[in-house]
């Protein structure tokens, strides 16, 4: 190698991507694409710099992938997660249905695939995109430090997320539900009904959704000045019906049990309702229960629940995918379009499980109310 010349080729053993060229040339991926496909739209000095980097790196455009994208229906990839046997809230099913409906209106379709874990999912997404099988991918079930976001960004794969990480949310497109606002609205409802000792059944820490719902309970209870009365009534476990029964039993067996509970999911809430009945109590009369997700089970059981605007999330995510994958403008010097950042407010649906607190105990001694 000639002295003073830095080899720009990547040191890792993989094919050179358009993102590698863009980084080495100090331009956007769109500018590299324009140099290859519409060179007249790029300034001469920029075009020459990008062309030199392409030659130095030995970049070869994937003509087969380009042909596939142009000749076949455009596909958006999404990993489908396995459904646990003890769940009643199939939120991903609703989301995928909304995503597919929104895509169909614009001649796009959803390509579902499975993967063992997020590492395998990232590899699958990248392979599908590089092969031209998908125009981009949608991420679901985001964690606070989700590694998929950084890896797909580095690989240049267009993606939009349902959910968001704890940091760097300004760097990628996402739509999310304000889960903290959802549980806070449930607290406001229960406080207005007369409850003061309000418990929380949630997921184990480490989930963006679960942590946000727990935070909503905490901040709302603090706002109402009720944390001192309820600080020991926050219990966590796996998101299963049996876990909900176990956690609720634990709360009901404590000295000074809650008069109401907010539950992070309808799955946990269905289990909690079983524990309430096992104690000879009646939901809504002796203790109030509010779930989250407004599943069909909530309707069938008269369970108050927080409804997510899943259909709107699906439409927003698909619209953003179309914007990211169909974008043809963006000559060098033109500022890129802002990524989607949309936080949607859920809605509390009140049913019989969270009726106002009784002012006097019922005559039935086997179903005494739990009162603050």
TrEMBL record:
Q: Where is the signal peptide, in residue numbers?
A: none
Record's PROSITE patterns? Answer: HTH_LACI_1, HTH_LACI_2
Q: Where is the stretch described as Disordered?
A: 353-372
Pfam families registered for this protein in UniProt:
LacI, Peripla_BP_3
Q: Which domain of life is it from?
A: Bacteria
Q: Which organism is it from?
A: Streptomyces chiangmaiensis
Q: Looking at the keywords, is Heme present?
A: no
Sorted alphabetically, which SMART domains does this protein's record hold? HTH_LACI (SM00354)
Q: Which GO terms describe its molecular function?
A: DNA binding
InterPro entries on file: HTH_LacI, LacI/GalR-like_sensor, Lambda_DNA-bd_dom_sf, Peripla_BP_I
Which protein, by its recorded name, is this? LacI family DNA-binding transcriptional regulator
Q: Which UniProt keywords apply?
A: DNA-binding, Transcription, Transcription regulation
Q: What SUPFAM superfamilies does the annotation carry?
A: lambda repressor-like DNA-binding domains, Periplasmic binding protein-like I
Q: Which residues form the HTH lacI-type domain?
A: 16-70
Q: Does the keyword Zinc apply?
A: no
């Amino acid at each position: 190698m000639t002295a003073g010349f830095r080899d720009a080729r990547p040191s890792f053993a993989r094919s050179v991507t358009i993102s590698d060229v863009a980084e080495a040339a100090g331009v956007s991926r769109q500018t590299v694409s324009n140099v290859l496909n519409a060179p007249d739209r790029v300034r001469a000095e920029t075009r020459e710099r990008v062309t030199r980097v392409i030659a130095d790196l030995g970049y070869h455009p994937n003509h087969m992938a380009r042909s596939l994208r142009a000749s076949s229906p455009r596909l958006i990839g999404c990993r489908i997660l396995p459904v646990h046997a003890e769940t009643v809230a199939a939120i991903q099913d609703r989301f995928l249905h909304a995503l597919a409906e929104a895509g169909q209106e614009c001649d796009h379709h959803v390509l579902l695939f499975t993967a063992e874990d997020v590492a395998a999912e990232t590899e699958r997404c990248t392979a599908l995109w590089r092969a031209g099988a998908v125009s981009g991918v949608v991420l679901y079930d985001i964690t606070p430090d989700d590694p998929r976001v950084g890896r797909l960004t580095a690989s240049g794969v267009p993606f939009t997320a349902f959910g968001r990480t704890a940091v760097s949310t300004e760097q990628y497109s996402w739509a999310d539900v304000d889960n903290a606002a959802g549980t806070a609205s449930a607290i406001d409802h229960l406080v207005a009904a007369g409850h003061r000792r309000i418990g929380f059944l949630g997921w184990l820490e480490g989930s963006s959704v679960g942590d946000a719902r727990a935070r909503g309970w905490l901040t709302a209870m603090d706002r109402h000045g009720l944390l001192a009365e309820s600080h020991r009534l926050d219990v966590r476990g796996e998101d299963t019906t049996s876990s909900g029964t176990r956690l609720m039993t634990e709360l009901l067996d404590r000295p000074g049990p809650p008069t109401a509970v907010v539950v992070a999911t309808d799955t946990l809430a269905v289990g909690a309702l079983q524990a309430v009945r096992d104690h000879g109590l009646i939901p809504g009369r002796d203790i109030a229960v509010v779930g989250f997700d407004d599943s069909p089970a909530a309707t069938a059981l008269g369970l108050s629940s927080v409804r997510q605007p899943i259909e709107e999330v699906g439409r927003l995510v698909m619209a953003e995918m179309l914007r990211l994958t169909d974008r043809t403008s963006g000559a060098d010097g033109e500022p890129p379009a802002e990524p989607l950042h949309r936080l949607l407010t859920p809605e509390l649906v009140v049913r019989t499980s969270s009726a106002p607190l009784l002012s006097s105990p019922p005559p039935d001694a086997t179903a005494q109310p739990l009162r603050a």
